[in-house]
Amino acid sequence: MSHRERKGGDARMMRMLRGDGRAVPLEQEADRYLSLGRLTILRADRHLVEATCEGRSRTHRLGYEPGRGWWCSCERDTCPHVMAAMKVTRPVHPAAASDPAFGFQDD
Ligand SMILES: [Zn+2]
């Protein structure tokens, strides 16, 4: 008889809940924004994302830029607006794009 250890899942959930003690995990909030159509992708290409997300009281601007990473006008360290955008876009960092392992070499 073998005993299976659960790894990864539990630790990840704890990390999400620990930050500011919110009852609703960020990922659940992000899913809600997506299901309600609150996230609008204004622009998305290989290296850049621009979007808006309608929060409860105001509309946040967010996006991804090389060198800056993900950002949001709400300025929380980790916010559901960015997490929602991360679920539907996948920008490529220029350094990663030139990595042979990535498979998008220009020649
Ligand atoms: Zn935000």
Q: Summarize this, please?
A:
The chain has helices spanning 9-18, 26-35, 80-88, 94-97, and strands at 39-44, 49-54, 59-65, 69-72. By secondary structure, it is of the alpha+beta class.
Polypeptide structure, described:
With 107 residues, the chain is an alpha+beta fold. The protein has one domain. It contains 4 helices and 4 strands; from the N terminus they run ααββββαα. The chain has a 4-stranded antiparallel sheet, covered by helices on one side. Strand 3 and strand 4 form a beta hairpin. Helix 2 crosses helix 3. The longest helix is centred in the first third of the chain and has 10 residues. It is globular, with a radius of gyration of 17 Å. It starts with 8 loop residues before the first helix and ends in a 10-residue tail after the last helix. Zinc ion (ZN) binds next to strand 3 and helix 3.
List keywords for this structure.
107 residues, 4 strands, binds zinc ion
Present the secondary structure layout.
Blueprint: H1 9-18, H2 26-35, E1 39-44, E2 49-54, E3 59-65, E4 69-72, H3 80-88, H4 94-97
Antiparallel strand pairs: 1-2, 2-3, 3-4
Helix pairs in contact: 2-3
Bound molecules: zinc ion (ZN).
Give the proportion of residues in helices. 25-40%
Q: Class by helix and strand content?
A: alpha+beta
SSE order: HHEEEEHH
> In what order do the strands lie side by side in the largest sheet?
1-2-3-4
Low-confidence stretches: 7-16
Largest sheet: 4 strands, antiparallel
What small molecules are bound in this structure?
A: zinc ion
For the residues shown, what is the average pLDDT? 79
Count every helix, treating DSSP H or I runs of 4 or more residues as helices: 4
